């Protein structure tokens, strides 16, 4: 198994991507700690993992509550002797589709402050319990908006670029401590019913303006057709890639972004 004996902390572990990654990490032998604000969502993921024979624990923690996040990370490290893998999969609802003329400062700053604040708080909490001979891997999530030159995604684009810059600089800081940092850049996923209201709210306005449903927009609309593969990545592809990147098989990878955009971006 790729992650046998590893300890993994996933903030946002009750969401679509976080939950998918947690399930694969557990299947690959990791002791998984999933963290989030909504216990019911965490419980769904935990039941799936337990039913498959995996080891999982849940914690209801607000990732913007820095003392609470640090306390949880310290408790995990005390129980397991350290933390091997961390992923921040927290989602922040934000506007997409509004151009500068109609965009408020509050809406512009919402994803920038929310995503980057959560990433800073969670990464600082777990990184202090990583490294040395044990090593460690910090995984981050961004979006193609970090590089796309399209209108209506100002706040989203800046926050995505910020997350990627954070990962690159952090990789340089943590490398002397034997900690790798790798970003994952998926596009919107097509098989994510668990994403629920977040996906609908994020893309609903754009889909409505185009006269189509969110699912139609994702499956066969411009988002899929704008990729080289003419499709969007799946949750399974994102989760399996995360497991590989967290494993020793990717031991030479750090300070880079894994492009899972199905060719929406070509680096």
Describe, in short, the structure shown.
The chain is α/β, with parallel strands linked by helices.
What is the residue-mean pLDDT, rounded to a whole number?
Answer: 90
CATH superfamily name?
NAD(P)-binding Rossmann-like Domain
What do we call the CATH topology? Rossmann fold
Question: Separation of termini?
Answer: 31 Å
What is the architecture at the second tier of CATH?
3-Layer(aba) Sandwich
Shape: globular
Family: Belongs to the short-chain dehydrogenases/reductases (SDR) family.
Keywords: Oxidoreductase
Organism: Actinacidiphila acidipaludis
Pfam family, one: adh_short_C2
Structure description:
By secondary structure, the protein is α/β, with parallel strands linked by helices. The chain has a single domain (7-260), classed as NAD(P)-binding Rossmann-like Domain (Rossmann fold). It has helices spanning 16-27, 39-51, 66-80, 105-127, 154-174, 196-209, 214-219, 222-225, 235-246, and strands at 7-11, 31-36, 55-60, 85-88, 136-141, 179-186, 256-260. A seven-stranded parallel sheet has the order 3-2-1-4-5-6-7, with helices on both faces. The longest helix has 23 residues, at 105-127. The protein is globular. This is SDR family oxidoreductase. Pfam families: adh_short_C2. InterPro entries: NAD(P)-bd_dom_sf (IPR036291), SDR_fam (IPR002347). Keywords: Oxidoreductase.
Entry keywords:
single chain; 267 residues; alpha/beta; Rossmann fold; 7-stranded parallel sheet; 7 strands; 15% strand; globular; SDR family oxidoreductase; oxidoreductase
